[in-house]
Design goal:
The protein is an alpha+beta fold. It is built from nine helices and four strands; from the N terminus they run E-E-E-H-E-H-H-H-H-H-H-H-H. The chain folds into three domains: 7-73 and 130-144, 2-Layer Sandwich (Ribosomal Protein S5, domain 2), CATH 3.30.230; 82-111, no CATH class; 148-284, no CATH class.
Length: 288
Amino acid sequence: MVSSMTGYAAVTRDLAQGTLTLELRSVNSRFLDLQFRIAEDLRTMEPALRELALTSVGRGKVDCRLTFTPAPLARGDASLNRETLARLARLSEIVRAAIPDIQSLRVADVLHWPGVIGDEAGGAEALREATLEAMRDALAELGAARSREGGKLAQMIRERIARMRARLAELAPLIPQAIAAYEEKLAAKLREALATAEEERIRQEIALFGVRIDVAEELSRLAAHLDEIDRVLTAGGSVGKRLDFLMQELNRETNTLGSKSVSKELSTTVLEFKVLIEQMREQVQNLE
């Protein structure tokens, strides 16, 4: 399957220490761009979270917001870690001795100090594991959301491909007739303008012009590019950059087709192709 670069996921975990909330938002980007906004208590988790994200997301701008709300002191399982509290008091005395006029710690500052409430080692490890688990679940949810949207985008692109193929099938039989009619019209104008020219010379000029306006090669290349787009979508994976290149090729062949147009039907088809290609190109920009 193919995936969109747009998605959202949110996971919440209620722990003894408090409530953990992790949000992932993903939007379009040329490359993979990971941005983290993490609560200060969990700042050391960023390398591990980044590593998990790198294994799950290939492209897009992904914003990760991780917040932690400590549990209220009224909860029955909340307790002070006296060892951490004593260590904090000693460090505070050392700092005050070095800087006498420094502001003292407030009770709220002490209670929010990492490890003061609850068992420092066990609580920190439990919080770490819960954070990693939340990140895995959020990445899975994000991947599912991106896949669902990617499937819809792929279907839309396939519908445009089908319309272009149908138009190519309708157009192919009309091209020889259009070229023949245009050559006959051109021959009449040449005979009128070059009354003294030899008939053989006129036929040579018309034949040379006919080669220049032949669009069989462009039609074949368009069909080949449409087949390749279908193959890439079926293969799945990271297809965005490949499809973006194919959109450029489709547009280039369509422009060449338009420059060789010798009939109203061909010109109308070229305009329709340009609209369909632009519609596909806009959606390809969303694919990973």
